[in-house]
């Protein structure tokens, strides 16, 4: 068989293999994605509360429902905040997407905390901010909020003197 005819036969064979190769690649990709998908369901009585990280003022509790807030990837966590709780102006390195589960979360925008300017967000409210948006919060009654976003989660105070980690 002449060389040109042999090369042409090999190309046709290779082209016919492309759909099969793509099918196998897609199956492997879907299998890997399914293996990473953690089916998670949490009933209210299964929520496990613990002391919140030192980045938050004392008195807050945290419950991680899904994922790991300290690592890259999706996570969901709840914060339980006592009545009269205050969080000084701060920012986050990733999108902040929050749902108020119970109580009243009073949210203000900017570098200076002013409770009179904070908007009252009752249970069922939702807010989301892009990374680096300065905001502050107060609570009225015991308040639970749920944060669902991509990690790693972090909190940087606008005024470093407000950071509770400095006192430790």
Number of DSSP strand runs: 9
Q: How many structural units, i.e. domains? A: 2
Task: Kindly report the oligomeric state of this protein.
Answer: single chain
How much helix is in the residues? 10-25%
State the name of the first-level CATH class of the largest domain.
Mainly Beta
Strand content: 35-45%
Tell me what you see in this structure:
This protein has 168 residues and is α+β, with helices and mostly antiparallel strands. Strands 1, 2, 3, 4, 5, 6, 7, 8 and 9 form a nine-stranded antiparallel sheet that branches. It is 20% helix and 38% strand. It folds into two domains: 1-37; 44-167, Jelly Rolls (Sandwich), CATH 2.60.120.10. The model is unreliable at 19-35 (pLDDT under 50). It is globular.
For this entry, give a set of tags:
alpha+beta; 38% strand; 20% helix; Jelly Rolls; single chain; 168 residues
Topology of helices and strands:
Blueprint: H1 3-36, E1 50-51, E2 61-66, E3 73-81, E4 86-91, E5 96-109, E6 119-122, E7 126-129, E8 135-151, E9 156-157
Antiparallel strand pairs: 1-2, 2-3, 3-8, 4-8, 4-9, 5-6, 5-7, 5-8
Short description:
This protein is α+β, with helices and mostly antiparallel strands and 168 residues long. The chain is built from one helix and nine strands; from the N terminus they run αβββββββββ.
